[in-house]
Design goal:
Elements: E1 6-12, E2 15-21, E3 45-51, E4 63-68, E5 73-80, E6 83-89, E7 97-103, E8 109-114, H1 128-137, E9 142-151, E10 156-160, H2 167-176, E11 180-183, E12 186-192, E13 195-200, E14 211-222, E15 227-231, H3 233-241, H4 251-267, E16 269-275, H5 280-293
Length: about 290
């Protein structure tokens, strides 16, 4: 990839991301608190940004993954010339291509072509930004999760589960009880020498960079009463891994994820939590943890 001038440097989950462009590019508001231009850091990820889409470069036979629902395409992934190619769709209009991107084999260099909107380009516009963050974690002991996380000043507790099970609800309850919310939807977990840490990621709103030491994971659901069941081994791994952000088309990536979750779930407590959506769940969680540590 031919380097252009450095336009932005971001620091997200202690990863340095540099964006290069010959033209003016913009970042969505959620990325602005993660700008970090002093001091200059060695880039973990480089993104070369270009205005305008190339001629459609993909053969449908090279399609390896497609993210879509009944009404909307999110993105498609192609394997081409040892690179991965991405077609990313505008989420406000049906079937309109927003970006075409290419990722090199070691997942460190992106080339992003973007459409112009209102006289500017947003190379990290959703959903491409989170896709880039996901592939950023693959080369290290890290993973991105659909989860909320609350931090009481000493321990961070991760709450994960299907959409609608109450991640935002339990975040609000924990926040009202005085806990800091790391994020209520999408986090990165990184393994470091001192243990596992949870980081927030840029959202559609502005929020400063946060990190907290992970203490426990709860796979949540609504329940008429508060109840906890501890999970171990394969049950814990499968439950937690189900809510990680992943593209299951590459055996080596899947093996990497399995290894990460095997270690994570052997070191961090994993529990199923059925909860009543009020402040009683906070005392219930703390009492359960105290009982198990006594």
């Amino acid at each position: 990839m031919q380097k252009k001038q450095v336009t932005f440097q971001l620091l997200i989950a202690d990863y340095s991301i540099k964006l290069f462009s010959e033209s003016n590019i913009e970042l969505e508001d959620g990325y602005l608190p993660f700008l970090n231009n002093e001091p200059p850091l060695k880039a973990d990820i480089e993104i070369n940004c270009t205005i305008g889409l190339p001629d459609y470069p993909f053969n449908e036979n090279d399609l390896v993954f497609e993210a879509k629902n009944e009404s909307q395409k999110f993105y498609s992934i192609y394997r081409t010339d040892k690179k991965l190619g991405f077609v990313v769709y505008n989420q406000q209009t049906k079937d309109e291509i927003q970006q075409i991107a290419f990722l090199n084999p070691d997942f460190t260099k992106w080339e992003v072509f973007s459409t112009v909107s209102n006289g500017q380009i947003l190379p990290l516009k959703y959903p491409l930004g989170p896709i880039i963050l996901h592939y950023m974690t693959i080369n290290s002991d890290a993973v991105m999760m659909h989860a909320s996380c609350a931090f009481d000043g000493k321990k961070a507790r991760l709450f994960t589960g299907f959409s609608g099970v109450g991640k935002s609800t339990i975040s609000k309850i924990m926040s009202d009880a005085g806990h800091q919310i790391i994020n209520d939807d999408r986090v990165i977990i990184r393994k470091k020498e001192e243990g596992y840490f949870v980081y927030n990621t840029p959202m559609y709103y502005r929020d400063y960079s946060k990190v907290a030491p992970l203490s426990a994971i709860y796979v949540i659901s609504h329940s008429p009463e508060n109840k906890i069941k501890k999970l171990n081994g394969a049950a814990a791994i499968s439950k937690v891994m189900a809510f990680s952000i992943q593209n299951n088309f590459d055996k080596s990536i899947i093996q990497n994820r399995l290894h990460f979750f095997n270690e994570l779930c052997s070191k961090i407590s994993v529990n199923e939590l059925g909860f009543v959506p009020n402040e009683s769940v906070v005392k219930f969680i703390l009492a359960h943890e105290t009982e198990n540590n006594s």
